[in-house]
Write a structure and sequence with these properties.
This protein is mainly α. It has one domain. The chain is built from 14 helices and 2 strands, in the order αααααααααααββααα. A two-stranded antiparallel sheet has the order 1-2. A hairpin with a 2-residue loop joins strand 1 and strand 2. It is globular. The two termini are about 20 Å apart.
């Protein structure tokens, strides 16, 4: 992987991390198209640059994250992230096995798109419009919804936003809580991928930080996170406006069209 590859993947991550279209799926497809999809550092890179994207949430909502008087905000995020941490650890090997096969991911992309076409009508009785109104039990329930995104192609953002709307959050409140929940979730995933997870490279198990020490990987890592951070700031602002105005159908059709295009590409053109 070179600098151009890193920048392209980071742009894709920044644009898609907080949209209900699966950033993981888009980065996997992009890496395969670029011809770098089987590299272990690329796999780790795709996970770890999400750290840059979540920093964009902290930067945009810094008043929320640094309001230490609102302790319930932190407790709700901690409680909501626990299901993903536990189940993510238990199913890590199965998740990694799917990451190497783009066809099932494209199929999930389509199925998720079909679901999004009906979400606006299914959950339209919102009674909660602000994070402070979210009770602890609701936050934990949204955390379990987020776990659906462990299947690559589902979209963490889509799962948690739909979970929020099912719990009677408004579109905007559900989207924002999804952003907030991404911070501890993706921070934990980044730490795990760099310091704890074993990456099998050429028959040897190595840690993520050991991969970073090879060649110019560390430079690519920093470049990727910086680009993802800058692009994510623009994406978050745009998404809130589009979601409030148009709902989920736009994203549903996008997922369906892209999913079919990718299936055709990987079956007939990617040999």
């Amino acid at each position: 992987m070179n600098i151009l590859h890193a920048i392209i993947l980071a742009i894709v991550e920044g644009l898609t991390e907080f949209l209900p279209i699966s950033s993981t799926a888009h980065m996997i497809f992009t890496s395969f198209i670029l011809g770098i999809g089987q590299d272990k550092f690329v796999e780790m890179f795709q996970v770890s640059i999400q750290f840059g994207a979540i920093l964009a949430v902290v930067a945009l909502y810094w008043k929320k994250f640094f309001d230490f008087k609102n302790s319930s905000f932190y407790f709700k995020l901690i409680a909501a992230v626990i299901p993903a941490l536990v189940l993510g650890k238990l199913f890590d090997d199965k998740i990694e096995a799917v990451l190497g096969n783009p066809i099932p991911i494209a199929i999930v992309l389509i199925i998720g798109g079909i679901v999004l076409l009906f979400i606006d009508n299914a959950f339209n009785q919102a009674t909660i419009s602000d994070e402070k109104e979210i009770p602890m039990r609701t936050a934990i329930t949204i955390g379990f919804w987020q776990c659906l995104a462990m299947m690559p192609g589902t979209s963490r953002s889509a799962a948690s936003i739909i979970g929020g709307m099912q719990q009677k959050l408004s579109r905007k409140a559900a989207a924002e809580f999804s952003f907030f929940l991404a911070v501890p979730t993706m921070f934990a995933v980044t730490v795990y991928s760099i310091f704890l997870k074993d990456w099998n490279q050429q028959g040897m198990d190595v840690k993520g930080y050991e991969l970073l020490q090879q060649g110019n990987n560390l430079s690519l890592f920093f470049i990727g996170n910086i680009v993802a951070f800058l692009v994510a700031i623009l994406a978050i602002k745009s998404f809130i406006s589009l979601l409030t105005k148009y709902g989920f159908k736009l994203w549903g059709w996008y997922r369906i069209v892209v999913g079919f295009i990718l299936i055709i590409y990987f079956i007939y053109f990617q040999k």
